[in-house]
Write a structure and sequence with these properties.
By secondary structure, the chain is an alpha/beta fold. 37% of the residues lie in helices and 15% in strands.
Length: 291
């Protein structure tokens, strides 16, 4: 590697969670848990203790590798949630999960650095999943560097309340890639080693933007970082298929399969069993093709 090449070209297929290396060259499945009343898919909403634990049990039994817990709905047009209220929702749920499943890898979906710091300091989360890529809270990158935890950086333009208001790109693949390159370079400069990139399907993108970006997933391998794909039951699927989120399971499985063939390392999903089956089948195809 020449001195002129940027730091983000160093290959990393592992992430360090509490001192344990997670090999994402073997794709992982992340089960979604929304402790919010207004998530776009009703099947992912859990607010009562017993329902949260049952959801975690189901994710584990179905072969999931980790969970992603969110208290702020980031669907387009979602209402704003005060920072303290988000933390008040997350603390009891994460405490419950950590107590019963101390070894489970837990990601928290938040774009607020104060809440990220509080939850990591309490030992309640292993990964921070930021749907704003550090754009909403300017302190997030330095906070992640201080906390030394894996960071999922997702491409987005705007906030949930306005991100779908006429999103425009001249070249969505090039623009998302350039945005990601700049962000990763900043994180590397701060000493952040465990970075997972998420192209941000369904966030500040039209249907055409989403499918153009999806068709070029393999180009994000340029970064030599784990790639997370989150398309589960999203509008890019159900609008094209003329159904709704409830009827988007088949479409989600199809796109998860294609994403894996294109190099996805982590699938963030509502339907864990089906995603695990996708991983098994695609892994078998890839291993068989080596002979």
């Amino acid at each position: 590697m020449s001195a002129e090449q940027p730091l983000f070209l160093n290959r990393r297929s592992t992430i360090n969670c509490r001192g344990h290396l997670i090999d994402t060259s073997i794709p992982k499945v992340m089960g979604i848990i929304n402790i919010t009343p207004d998530s776009f898919y009703s099947g992912s909403r859990f607010r009562v203790d017993r329902d949260i634990i049952k959801r975690v049990e189901d994710i584990i039994e179905e072969g999931g590798d980790m969970v992603d817990v969110g208290a702020y709905s980031t669907r387009p047009g979602a209402d704003e949630l005060p920072e303290q209220e988000e933390l008040d929702r997350l603390l009891p749920a994460l405490t419950l999960i950590r107590k019963k499943y101390p070894d489970l890898i837990v990601s928290v979906d938040t774009f607020r650095s104060n809440n990220a710091r509080s939850l990591v300091k309490e030992g309640l989360t292993d990964i921070i999943n930021d749907v704003s890529g550090g754009d909403i809270d300017s302190a997030m990158f330095e906070t992640i560097a201080e906390l030394n935890v894996p960071y999922i950086i997702m491409h987005n333009k705007g906030i949930p309340q306005n991100m779908q208001q006429r999103p425009e790109y001249r070249d969505v693949v090039a623009e998302v890639s350039l945005w990601m390159a700049r962000k990763v370079d900043i994180l590397r400069g701060l000493g952040v080693n465990d970075i997972i990139i998420d192209p941000g399907f369904g966030f500040s993108k039209t249907l055409e933007h989403n499918f153009t970006l999806f068709s070029h997933i393999e180009e994000f391998d340029l970064f030599q970082l784990p790639i997370l794909i989150g398309i589960s039951r999203k509008s890019m699927i159900y609008k094209l298929l003329e159904t709704d989120a409830e009827g988007a399971l088949n479409g989600s499985s199809v796109l998860n399969t294609v994403a894996l063939m294109k190099g996805a390392n982590i699938l963030r999903v509502h339907d864990v069993k089906e995603a695990v089956e996708c991983v098994k089948l695609v892994s078998k195809i890839k291993s068989a093709s080596k002979y």
